[in-house]
Amino acid sequence: QVQLVESGGGLVQAGGSLRLSCAASGRTVSAYAVAWFRQAPGWERDFVAAHHWGDNTYYADSVKGRFTISRDNANNTVYLRMDSLKPEDTAVYFCGAVKRGPRPPPRVSHEYDYWGRGTQVTVSS
Is the pLDDT of residue 27 over 80? Predict the structure, then answer.
């Protein structure tokens, strides 16, 4: 069992920055890869970024070059640094955990085993 708690969301103007945190707990958390997804009202939960073994990271094209995912293994926390925010980044951001394997983490939400409750990010124009 893995528990995930997101924090760091808020209201920011376009062009601003936020850093989201995903605190993971559970006996086997190190065996899981963690990814960020986001969901706007009326839309599906979409992949944003994922962290895999070592420094391997993956991003959606829409956030590449603006968002950075990182993992602090000592504190079991995964961060999402978001820069140059745009109004279209407005959504609830969720972190999800999936058992690590040889392939990169999936980009579809239904393949994830655990989810946090999300944190709201609102970007004003």
Answer: no
